[in-house]
């Protein structure tokens, strides 16, 4: 990625151009909220009851760790963010925050979040938080995203770890159930982002990001999205049969996955012409459903945990 068109100017940015909202945007608050939500679910469904203050503090440090990942990602991706329509107004490419300031913020939040989570909860959780930040900032942002169409699949692990970190913060351990929560998000991520890529394909082309839509075409992207949707359903049902599941979880999982796979099937059967004709309605529908799917699925885990022996197997 050495083309001059993707070069970010090294000029300094006047400090008075950046507001608190710009630095908040650097933390990718939408992704941070997803990490906080799934980490909280992991903490709540884990066996035992952590002290409320320590639990809340642990979630705060996990949130800061997620924000650190976002800042480091925006620092490194500023060149391609400047090219893509949906990202060119971000603080760095828009010139409101200097790249060095974003890097400093990301590194500072990394240190604070990892050390404080270790002191507040335990060093198992802190170690996984540090690994997650490294995975997202280095393995995904600096390597996978720009070099391979596997970027969404392998890189999705970074967003899949928070529930396990929450579980580890509560118990100091990472049993099978915690890993299945990771697996659920891991299988959810590809169809979620591929549905998005199908209706923002031109952005990825212009930024030279090797998304599956760019390297293998839309037809293969739809096929892979369907395959991962089926895999997601399998993992989802598996989780429902474990100690954190129950009849309610299983029933909700069946409904959620039936709709998810049906939408993925409808998308798979689409032609490019039909997709363009209706403004990518099916692709956008799957993308929106995937957001509801994850929220509903993780919410039912908490409900099942609250029901205790009345709701479990």
The SSE order reads: HHHHHHHHHHHHHHHH
Q: Main β-sheet: number of strands, strand sense, barrel status?
A: none
What is the CATH superfamily classification of the largest domain?
UbiA prenyltransferase
Portion of residues in helices? over 70%
Low-confidence residue ranges: 1-13
Name the structural class. mainly alpha
Strands, total number: 0
Number of domains: 2
Report the span from N to C terminus.
Answer: 53 Å
> Architecture of the largest domain, CATH level 2?
Orthogonal Bundle
Average of the residue pLDDT scores: 91
- What top-tier CATH class of the largest domain fits best? Mainly Alpha
Calculate Rg over CA atoms. Answer: 20 Å
The CATH topology of the largest domain is what?
A: Tetracycline Repressor, domain 2
Identify the overall geometry: flat
Strand content: under 5%
Number of helices: 16
List the helices and strands and how they pair.
Blueprint: H1 20-26, H2 29-45, H3 52-76, H4 78-81, H5 99-120, H6 123-147, H7 151-155, H8 157-160, H9 162-171, H10 176-199, H11 201-207, H12 212-215, H13 217-240, H14 247-268, H15 272-277, H16 281-307
Task: Give an overview of the whole structure.
The chain is mainly alpha-helical and 313 residues long. It folds into two domains: 1-174, Tetracycline Repressor, domain 2 (Orthogonal Bundle); 176-313. The protein is built from 16 helices and no strands. It has helices spanning 20-26, 29-45, 52-76, 78-81, 99-120, 123-147, 151-155, 157-160, 162-171, 176-199, 201-207, 212-215, 217-240, 247-268, 272-277, 281-307. Helix 2 packs parallel to helix 16 (281-307) and helix 10 (176-199) runs antiparallel to helix 13. It is flat, with a radius of gyration of 20 Å.
């Amino acid at each position: 990625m050495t083309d001059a068109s993707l070069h970010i100017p090294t000029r300094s940015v006047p400090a008075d151009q950046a507001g608190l909202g710009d630095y908040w945007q650097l933390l990718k608050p939408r992704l941070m909220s997803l990490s906080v939500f799934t980490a909280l679910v992991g903490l709540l469904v884990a066996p035992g009851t952590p002290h409320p203050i320590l639990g809340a503090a642990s979630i705060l440090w996990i949130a800061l760790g997620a924000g650190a990942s976002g800042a480091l990602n925006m620092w490194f991706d500023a060149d391609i963010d400047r090219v893509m329509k949906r990202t060119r107004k971000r603080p760095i490419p828009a010139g409101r925050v200097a790249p060095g300031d974003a890097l400093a913020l990301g590194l500072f939040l990394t240190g604070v979040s990892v050390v404080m989570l270790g002191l507040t909860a335990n060093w198992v959780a802190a170690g996984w938080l540090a690994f997650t930040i490294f995975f997202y900032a280095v393995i995904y942002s600096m390597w996978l995203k720009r070099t391979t169409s596997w970027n969404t699949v392998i890189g999705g692990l970074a967003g899949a770890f928070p529930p396990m970190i929450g579980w580890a913060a509560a118990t100091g351990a990472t049993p099978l159930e915690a890993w299945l929560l990771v697996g659920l998000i891991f299988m959810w991520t590809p169809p979620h982002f591929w549905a998005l890529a199908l209706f923002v394909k031109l952005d990825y082309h212009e930024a030279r990001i090797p998304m599956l839509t760019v390297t293998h075409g839309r037809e293969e992207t739809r096929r892979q999205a369907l395959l991962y949707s089926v895999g997601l359903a399998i993992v989802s049902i598996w989780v429902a049969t474990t100690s954190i599941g129950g009849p309610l979880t299983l029933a909700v999982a069946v409904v959620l996955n039936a709709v998810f796979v049906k939408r993925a099937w409808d998308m798979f059967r689409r032609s490019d012409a039909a997709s363009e004709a209706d403004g990518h309605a099916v692709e956008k529908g799957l993308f929106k459903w995937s957001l509801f799917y994850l929220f509903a699925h993780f919410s039912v885990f908490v409900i099942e945990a609250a029901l205790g022996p009345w709701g479990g197997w």
